[in-house]
Amino acid sequence: MAKQDSTKGQLAGFVQAQVDEIERASALLELEKPVQQIVKNLEDLGQNCRRMNEELGEKKVSSSGVSIARRNLKELEHQMVFYEELPRKVQGLHDALDGGLLSFVEVYEKWQEIDDWRQKMLHELSVAAVEKSDELGNSKAQARIMASMGSRLSAIESVQNRIYAEVWGCMHHCVEIAQFGKQRLLDAFLVLELMESRRQRYADSKKEVYLDNQMKPVAEFSVPTRERCKIEVTTFLAKRIADIFRAAESEAEASKKDLFTPVLEAATQMMVDLEIVQSDVAPCFPSEIDVIQLFTTTYNTQLETEITKLSTRPDVGIAQRLQIVQWIDYYNTEIIKYKHSRASIILDRISQDLMKAYLDEIQVQIHTWVTNIWKRDEECIVGPQGELQSTRPNDIVNILKSQISIAQEWLSGRLVGCVVATCLQVLMEELKIRYDSIAGKLEAIDAEMLCSFINDAEILQAKCPELVEEISFAETDSEEKEAFDTFMGDSLDTTSTDIVAFATNACDLIVNKIFHEVEQNFVQFFNKYSADLRRTGIRSEEDIKKEFTSLQVISSTLRGEAPPESNQQDTGEILRHVVKLIKTTSSQEASGHKSKEKPVKEGSVKKKRFGAISKGKKSKSKSEKDKTDPAKNGAPETAKESTSRGSSFTQQDEDGDSFTVQKLDMAAFLGS
């Protein structure tokens, strides 16, 4: 079929050539009489010139009129020959373009010479039409001349169309041509330079304009060639990109497949073309035309439209949106590597919106799941060291890991870091919610639950590094790993510190709870036995503080710290006994003598002389035991005990229990 079509084309060309020859022959026959008349006139002119020469003499200089006539005659002869050979020259240019007989630049130069003649004729006809027009503005002479010269003018214009088609075609398909025929692209730019020189010549004259065969000015000729080159490149590139996406959509619809992947693949293929533009096309373009910027700017404009349309489709799921986010990040990262190119602000905004929507969604999911984990009924487990634990930390970390794993499947580098940071943020928010809930109802919370929360927080803090340990990057993609590390920074350390702070605050809650319960017990005790306590001399808060001051002095002295501010008269004796006791203990340790009986006696003395509040039965049994044990109760101790008990008393409380209240004798306590 191809050979048949080629043969048909050749036959059609041959027939057309024969028709043109017949038309030219017919035109020449029509001009036979005018030519004969011109020849006759020229013969008469020649005879007149010879006669004048005879009259003036052979040695005399010819007149100016004769010289002008000769020049006109020569010009007329040249014009006639040129006009006669014009069809053959035009056809020769067509043949040169078809067969490559001449270089493209040579074809243009020969055509420009012919086109200059055409422009001259058109301008003369335009002027003549104005001077010799009728009342309606019509010129019969112009119409007659155009009718006779129309075929030749059209033939010249046909060569012009082919030259322009070649030049702009090279601009349109510069990516393909630069790979397989770079010289063709270079020749096109040489022709563009010649076209610009000619256009500049017309612009400098300020009188002449470039006309078409209808004698109307050509608007494109007033635009600088380089500017028109930019317009041609960007216009065709925009149309080509749109056609690529429409073809991908049509192919997906024809095969009944999801169009998401074909569209994204088409967008990725464009980046491959951009690499060719930088390596092969850009060196062919003149420095005044930044072809890379033309491509990147057009890419941004077209992709902003296509990606926006793709991202707003209702059938695009979460995974596909993450693919769009990753592709935009890849595109903007790659595009700025090219000279004078900028990332797309609109695409970046689309990526941010999609990423924000995704992060908001996983935040809601994580909050819901973690809240359900906190709320579920679960018994505390005793750890290997006796600590209270639960399975909640493992479940929470597994939830966070699953979200990060899904994100890493489609995202990379900085974007994965965004997901990890969001998971850590939600974790801290959940811990704060849990902590605030416990702190808000501290009285109703069991101490076991508080301990479990603290231990769970410690486990979460230890497991935080696990969130990023399973994130892996390709060994060849160091930039991706670097981007992830840069984005994460010290987020993990900060989160660990914050979790420890929560655990510490929870420990404070335990202390507060213990002291609160002790305080309540003290309040209940003092309210219940206030009358009995007053008999011992404890009548106010100051009296209670005074009793405990002695203990603070002893504790500070034993620790080697400065004792609290107090009355030296009240605490001086106690302080001397403590120092004496310390010296005695140090001497015993230095001598190496250890006695097992003495600690027992001292311990019993402390128990007796400290004074305690106990149930009646226990107190009674202990008193009987002490009385029957002569080893523990010597004469001095008994005398002191009876003296200290002189101010004590026994009373039956409301529920039938008895208690003993004994005023603290610190000197007896220290064994003085």
From TrEMBL:
Residues 591-605, 621-630 have a biased composition (Basic and acidic residues). The keyword Coiled coil applies. The lineage of its organism: Eukaryota, Sar, Stramenopiles, Oomycota, Peronosporomycetes. PANTHER family: EXOCYST COMPLEX COMPONENT 3, EXOCYST COMPLEX COMPONENT SEC6-RELATED. Signal peptide: none annotated. Keywords: Coiled coil. GO terms for biological process: exocyst localization; exocytosis. Pfam families: Sec6. GO terms for molecular function: SNARE binding. It comes from Phytophthora lilii. This is Unnamed protein product. GO terms for cellular component: exocyst. InterPro entries: EXOC3/Sec6 (IPR010326).
